[in-house]
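Predict the 3D structure for this chain.
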Amino acid sequence: MILTTDQLIELSRNAIAAAREAGRMISEKAGTNVSYEKKSTGASLASQVVTEVDRMSQDIVLRHLLPTCDQYQLGMLAEESEDDGSRFERDYFWCVDPMDGTLPFIESRPGYAVSIGLVARSGEPIIGVVYDPLEHNLYHAAKGIGAFRNEDKWDLVIASDRPAEHIDRGGAVMNACWVLEHGGGYFYKKPKKQNGGGCLWDYAATACLFEVMGAWVSDMYGNPLELNRQESTYMNHRGIMFASHADAARPLLIT
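Done. Predicted structure below.
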């Protein structure tokens, strides 16, 4: 099945509604005394912490998106649920991070967001929706349709009057969005042996934004991101590179 333009628009609207509602809830919880626990996965604190807000956000997102799975025969991969393998059986699957940047959220600093991607079984990002609950900014893109910031058409503007800046001050999703906002930055994670480096849901939505806007997104070897890995949901095997333009990315790639 190949989704039509009208279907992509409708699915984008579903994802936007889900991200907005989840983001409003996260905004209301920000700055309150939220307890957290540690998951056994991942090698860093940022990848281990989870709160009740993460789970509440996922419940909201799934309430919006699960009906579309039946309607369009879509798979589902969400951070706070087990991988049911549907992403390997369906032509497309939702890839959901209900709150990327849980550590910044706990520490009451910027860098957390709701992230929803629609990915083809081949690993190609098709739809990307990101909502920043702190600044209330909505970013979304769909292949063949365009990229938007707060519902306005969003075109990449490269700041040529300053050197590229390494941006790494929040979760992976907002770091990538800040690269696009900055117009002359990059964000990367080098390959490593231990599990980490983010997961599929950390990059699915922003990879779509970058591809649609003509910015640079790849692994650290310059190849397309494997956004539907058979072996693992982790991305540490080849690392990731997000940059506003090729000249910012190429000096850092592994050759």
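The first helix runs from residue 5 to 29.
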